[in-house]
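Annex B. Sample input.
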Amino acid sequence: MHKSVISRSIPLLAATASLSILAAACGVAESDRDYAAPRQLCGTPVHPKLLAPFLPGGKQLEVVRADSGVIGQRRCNVLVDHKRVLSMESQWRSPGTEIADVSASGWQIDVSEHIAADRTYSFSEEGGVSKVLCPNPAKEWRSTKGQLFVSMYTLDPDPKNEAGMEALLTSYARATGRMPDCNSPGAGS
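Annex B, continued. Sample output.
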């Protein structure tokens, strides 16, 4: 009986050790950060646990809106210790624009590795592009018909975290669509 307990414990210990190694490789420990993951990015709500895997260790985090001056295009950058680590952009495109057209024109990263079955988003460990449902855009945001997209990329996709990027991208796209700029009373689309 003593022997069977030991033989069952070894696989359990091996599995526990493997999970510990995997967890350590999936991101920077919070203890290596002197800052908390933010709850919003340039006004768009985001769950800190979705953002945390893409934040490196460091002392200070800043979220900076970098308006491009182009109507319908907004940028948001996340900086840690004054270095950009994550960037997001929202932009309007002509009706019928595909996600591949947006990803190929932007930051020159390949997000075609994983394309959603409904073709509303694509992603890789480096970033992603998603269509946004924006039913009533404010006139200051977009005055003609079109399709809103959000795109994001990380400047340091290490450790590789495709599942985390997919979760962050789709959550950020849904949150963008719930913002007041996409739900302006009487705006129509």
